[in-house]
């Protein structure tokens, strides 16, 4: 009886050891994961232009960006894939659940805003990540050279996220043509970032 108990204990030890070893192995082999956050959702419509709500444009862009990145074999998670209301804290939980290596939160400015065609908000360690995206977006969207497109800010989705995070605040100007250029620039920028951090 005693011997059997010991054997059982040894087995449990061996199993738990193996499990943690396997977990470590799995973690090492985890593919680089990008989390895309479509801003707003549900009752929170965000900005609007006519009958068009920011929450819907953000989601459309998030789905397009996901598809473009997946074509290149990048693993992508979303905070939402439908019109759904999410607290900021719930978005942060999804970042953790996804095991994300970086986060891109998609937003549109107010329609009447006269700022640059896009702004990238970052905090602290997110600056290097934002700079990579900025260099590719400058090619695809050609903001005026003197326009400041990088912006340090204390927004929740960049400050309270434990991995490099950028909040894209895109202009409504230029409509879908500019939105396509935005997706192209973000895709190129994210691929470049993933290649150097995988
Ligand atoms: Zn917004």
Tally of domains: 1
What about the largest sheet? 6 strands, mixed
The kinds of small molecule bound in this structure are: zinc ion
What is the CATH-assigned architecture? 3-Layer(aba) Sandwich
CATH superfamily: Zn-dependent exopeptidases
CATH C-level name: Alpha Beta
Q: Order of helices and strands, N to C?
A: HEEEHEHEEHEHEH
The low-pLDDT segments are 1-18
CATH topology: the name is: Aminopeptidase
Structural description of this entry:
The protein has helices spanning 2-29, 54-71, 88-98, 126-141, 156-159, 175-197, and strands spanning 33-38, 48-49, 52-53, 75-78, 102-108, 118-122, 150-152, 165-170. By secondary structure, it is an alpha/beta fold. It has a single domain (32-197), classed as 3-Layer(aba) Sandwich (Aminopeptidase). Residues 1-18 have low confidence and may be disordered. The chain binds zinc ion (ZN).
Short description:
Helix content is 51%, strand content 18%.
List keywords for this structure.
six-stranded mixed β-sheet; 198 residues; binds zinc ion; 6 helices; Aminopeptidase; alpha/beta; globular
Topology at a glance:
Elements: H1 2-29, E1 33-38, E2 48-49, E3 52-53, H2 54-71, E4 75-78, H3 88-98, E5 102-108, E6 118-122, H4 126-141, E7 150-152, H5 156-159, E8 165-170, H6 175-197
Parallel strand pairs: 1-4, 1-5, 5-8, 6-7
Antiparallel strand pairs: 2-3, 6-8
Bound molecules: zinc ion (ZN).
């Amino acid at each position: 009886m005693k011997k059997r108990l010991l054997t059982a204990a040894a087995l449990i030890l061996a199993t738990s050891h193996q499990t943690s070893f396997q977990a470590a192995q799995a973690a090492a082999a985890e593919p680089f994961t990008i989390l895309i956050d479509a801003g707003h959702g549900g009752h929170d419509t965000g900005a609007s232009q006519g009958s068009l709500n920011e929450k819907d444009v953000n989601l459309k862009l998030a789905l397009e960006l996901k598809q473009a990145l997946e074509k290149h074999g990048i693993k992508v998670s979303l905070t939402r894939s439908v019109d759904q209301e999410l607290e900021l804290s719930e978005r942060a939980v999804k970042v953790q659940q996804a095991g994300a290596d970086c986060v891109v939160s998609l937003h549109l400015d107010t329609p009447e805003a006269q700022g640059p065609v896009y702004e990238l908000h970052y905090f602290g360690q997110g600056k290097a990540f934002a700079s990579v995206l900025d260099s590719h977006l400058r090619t695809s969207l050609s903001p005026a050279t003197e326009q400041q497109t990088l912006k340090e800010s204390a927004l929740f989705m960049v400050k309270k996220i434990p991995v490099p995070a950028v909040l894209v605040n895109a202009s409504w100007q230029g409509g879908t043509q500019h939105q396509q250029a935005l997706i192209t620039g973000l895709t190129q920028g994210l691929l470049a970032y993933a290649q150097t951090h995988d």
